Amino acid sequence: MGQLTQFAPFLLMFVVIYFFMIRPQQKRAKNEKEFENSLKVGDKIVTKSGFHGKIAELAETTVVIETMSGKLKLERSAISMEMSVALNAKKA
């Protein structure tokens, strides 16, 4: 019983770290992956670097976006989920 009370603070610390740091990060990564997979041609997006555009072509890991100055080829992971959702919510 004495050893259990000795390790209780460490167990409690691990549980707190899991629920406040690890779990939210995993949930966010899952949401971003679902967002990347749900992209389709014609969607208006904003990249993490601030480029605004419309999706012209999709590949497995890349996307071609149409901007006012031409077409750009980017990785899907370069698209910002938060800013794209906010942009589309503003338009609707």
Describe it.
This protein is of the alpha+beta class and 92 residues long. Helix content is 52%, strand content 24%. Strands 1-2-3-4 form a 4-stranded antiparallel sheet. It is elongated and about 70 Å long. The protein starts with a helix and ends with a helix. The mean pLDDT is 92.
Keywords:
92 residues, alpha+beta, four-stranded antiparallel beta sheet, 2 helices, translocation
Radius of gyration: 20 Å
Structural class: alpha+beta
The gross shape turns out to be elongated
Q: Which regions are unreliable across 5 or more consecutive residues at pLDDT < 50?
A: none
Percent of residues in helices comes to: 40-55%
Task: Give a brief description.
It is built from 2 helices and 4 strands.
Task: Draw up the topology in text.
Layout: H1 2-38, E1 44-46, E2 52-58, E3 62-67, E4 70-75, H2 81-91
Antiparallel strand pairs: 1-2, 2-3, 3-4
